[in-house]
Design brief:
Elements lengths: L3 E8 L3 H8 L8 E3 L4 H9 L6 H4 L5 E8 L5 H14 L5 E5 L3 H9 L5 E3 L3 E5 L11 E5 L11 H11 L7 E5 L5 H8 L4 E6 L2 H13 L6 E5 L10 E7 L2 H7 L7 E13 L3 H8 L3 E9 L2 E8 L2
Parallel strand pairs: 6-7, 8-9, 8-11, 9-10, 11-12
Antiparallel strand pairs: 1-3, 1-4, 2-3, 5-6, 12-14, 13-14
């Protein structure tokens, strides 16, 4: 079966941030084209000043991130995630892909998406799979559509594990960057009182609403279309943000106004190379009570400093 190549073209000044976000899609590696400082790099590495003319003609104002999606994963979900996160970060971008035909993407990917046990209480069940045994777990029926969030990525699993230990029947949840709605819907199935999800991507908002209806929790779930907390009001017992380091840093400046004194703030989507940046950004306002990690990805659980 054929892999899919996704290319993302961004202004060269944003290439490092774009690469960090791409790492969330394929933690096994990406390839970046950046010719902005080619002469100096060739001199430093090879100690020569002879460069092929075709390379010298390369665009110096843009960089390209190459991402390769294996046939067991859904490239449409990856593209939706990338577009959402780059838009949220204000990164101008052009995304293209090539590889297997669109109708093959879902066929190839869906056959590998099995029911997944998460933590101690949850089972994520793709809507097209009937061959499963819940073994007493709470079943979350999921059709991710074009939105990010299936439960297979480390960042989502870590959030779900943190949530299941903290949700009660009085919990009000705020999910920032909700994607498919998986975190908010899971919290409601675990007994949360209400949930609000917000996402900048209209397709994600639609998918989250559909997944809430699939699991009969739509009357308790409100989904907003917007960036971070622009359209959010009220206070919440748990705020969860499975986004990227820069967005978490930005969100954390104002998130306290949506929290009670004893609320919990769950942050995920933090790659190991950005962990210290996030910790330094939140240290004045939050006390980190738990650090979860899996395969180079980190999830922080924090409370407001008193």
């Amino acid at each position: 079966m054929e892999w899919t190549e996704i290319t993302v073209t961004v202004p060269v000044e944003d290439i490092d941030r774009a690469g960090d976000i791409a790492q969330m899609v394929v933690p096994y590696g990406i390839y970046i084209e950046d010719y902005s400082n080619m002469e100096q790099e060739v001199e430093d590495i090879a100690h020569i000043d002879l460069i092929d003319e075709d390379l010298l003609k390369k665009d110096r104002s843009s960089g390209v991130v190459h991402i390769y999606i294996n046939p067991e994963e859904n490239p449409k979900e990856a593209i939706a995630f990338l577009s959402e996160r780059y838009t949220a970060q204000g990164i101008t971008h052009v995304i293209s892909s090539n590889g297997c035909e669109e109708e093959d993407w879902l066929n190839n990917w869906k056959q590998y998406f099995h029911p997944i046990p998460i933590g101690e209480k949850l089972l994520i069940r793709p809507t097209w799979r009937d061959d499963y045994n819940a073994k007493g777990r709470v079943v979350l029926n999921l059709d991710p559509g074009l939105a990010f969030g299936t439960g297979t990525h480390e960042t989502t699993r870590l959030c779900l594990q943190a949530l299941e230990q903290r949700v009660t029947d009085t919990t009000k949840i705020l999910d920032v960057g909700c994607g498919s709605g998986i975190l908010a819907v899971a919290a409601l199935l675990l007994g949360a009182k209400t949930a609000v999800g917000v996402d900048i991507d209209e397709m994600a908002v639609k998918t989250a609403q559909e997944n809430a209806q699939l699991n009969n929790v739509n009357e308790k779930f409100t989904v907003l279309s917007g960036n971070l907390t622009d359209k959010v009001t009220g206070k919440y017992n748990i705020v969860v943000a499975n986004i990227v380091a820069d967005a978490i840093i930005m969100l954390s400046k104002d998130i306290k106004e949506f929290m009670y004194d004893d609320s919990v703030y769950i942050m995920s989507g933090i790659i190991d190379t950005r962990l210290d940046d996030v910790l330094n950004a939140i240290e004045d306002d939050f006390h980190v009570t738990e650090v979860l990690n899996d395969n180079g990805w980190y999830c922080l659980v924090a409370t407001i400093k008193k």
